[in-house]
Amino acid sequence: MADAASRLTALAEELLGVPLPVRLRAWDGSEAGPANGPVLIIRDRRALRRLLWKPGELGLARAWVAGEIDVEGDLYTVLDRLAGFLWERGEESRGLLETVRDPRVRAAAAALLRLAGPFPPPKPPLEEMRGRSGARHTRRRDKQAISHHYDVGNEFYAIVLGPSMVYSCAYWTEQGSLEDAQRDKLDLIARKLGLKEGDRLLDVGCGWGSMAIHAAREYGARVVGVTLSREQAAFARKRIAEEGLTDRIEIRVQDYRDVEDGPFDAISSIGMAEHVGTVKYREYADALYGLLKPGGRLLNHQISRRPEPDEEAYEVDAFIDAYVFPDGELAPMGRTLTTLEDAGFEVRDVEAIREHYALTLRRWVANLEGDWDRAVRLTSPGRARIWRLYMAASAVSFERNRIGVNQFLAVRTPGSGASGVALRPRVWSESGESLEPEESQEPQGR
C-alpha cells in the first residue's frame, strides 16, 4: 500500500483519460496531484469500494456521509473542479466497470479493485432513506418523504436558515444580510400577488410560517398555511402566537390536495412544487386553479433544471434522492409554464433569479459551518455532512447554470379578460436582470 495516492491518481487518470483536477491524500498519508489548491482526502479505502460498487454521485456521497472522504481547503473549489467528472462526463463516472472495453483500461480497473480491498462495500450510512414502496407521490409516500427532509429538528434548521426561517431562494437587492434578502423575497411575492387588507391567501408548503406571517402582518391578509411536516407546523404556530396573529393565520398539517375551503384571492407556492413530481404536476396545477377565485393570482416559486436532449432518459440525482429530497423532481422551466397554461392559467410574468440562489446557499453553508459542533449534536455527523455537501454542490450547480429558480405569476383570468395586473414598466439591469420599478417598492397593503 506504499504511496497509495500516486497509485490511485495514476489508475483514475488511466480510467478517465484526463488528469485529475485536485490533489489526493490517501489513507497512508501519501499525496499526489496538483501542488496548489484544495486537497481531496481519502481517509479509508472503503470509499473506493463504494465508488466501484456505485460509480458516480451516489458512491461518492455515501463515502462523504460516512466520513471516509473529506476536503482540506475550499469545498466549492473541489466541487467545481470535479463537476466535469460528475456532470459533464456522466457516462464514464457512472459506469467505470460496466462500460470499459479497452484491455488497458480493464487492467487499470482490476488494479483499482485490488487497491480498494475486499468486496462487497460497507452498508450505506443510516441517514439514507430506504424502505420506500408503492407508486411515487401518493399521499402516504409524499408524507414520508417530507418527514425525512423537514423533520430533522427545528433547532438544526434555525442554525442553517437564521432568524428568517425561510428555506427558499432569497432576493438580493444589495449585499445586505440574509434576513434582509429573505424579507425582500417575501415582500416581492406579496406585491406580485397584489395582496391587500382582508385578502384570503393559501400558502402551499408553508414551512415555518414566514410567508404567512409577512402577508398577515404587513398586508392584513387572512392566511391558511398547509404543510405535511408536524415539526414545521408546531414551530409556525408558536411564532404566529408570539406575533399576535392567531386571528389571521391558520396552520394545518394537510396535503394541498385535501384543501376544500376555497376560493382564495391568492396562492403562494414557494419551493414546494419540486416535491410534486412530474407525473402529478398537472394535477397540482389543476388543484390550485380550482382553489382560486376568478381573477385570483398564483405565485409559483420553483427550482428548474436545464432541458435534456432526450427527456425520456432523464434520471433523478441519486444523491439528492437518497439523502436529501426523496422523490423530488425538477422540470425544465418551459414544461412548468406549459402545464400552468394547460390548467387554464394566464401566465403574466416569469422572473429568473438563478444567481440569487447561489448566494443564498453560500450563506446557509456559512451558517452551518459557523455552528458545526452544535449542528452535529442536534442531528448526527452524517446528517450535518449531508447538508453541507448538498448545499455547497447546489450553489455550484446554480453558478454553472445546471439548475435555475423562477417565479411564475399566473392568473385565473375571468372571461372578461380583466387580469387585475397593474400596467407598470419593467426595469432591466445591465446584466439583463429584471428589477422592480421605484414606485412599486413600498407595500401595497396597510
Automatic annotation (TrEMBL):
One of its GO terms (biological process) is lipid biosynthetic process. The keyword Ion transport does not apply. InterPro entries: CFA/CMAS, CMAS, MeTfrase_dom, SAM-dependent_MTases_sf. Transmembrane segments: none annotated. Residues 133-142 have a biased composition (Basic residues). The keyword Nucleus does not apply. Gene3D superfamilies: Vaccinia Virus protein VP39. One of its GO terms (molecular function) is methyltransferase activity. Residues 123-144, 417-446 are annotated as: Disordered. Keywords: Lipid metabolism, Methyltransferase, S-adenosyl-L-methionine, Transferase. Residues 156-396 form the Polyketide synthase-like methyltransferase domain. Residues 433-446 have a biased composition (Acidic residues). Belongs to the CFA/CMAS family. This is Cyclopropane-fatty-acyl-phospholipid synthase. It comes from Streptomyces showdoensis. The lineage of its organism: Bacteria, Bacillati, Actinomycetota, Actinomycetes, Kitasatosporales.
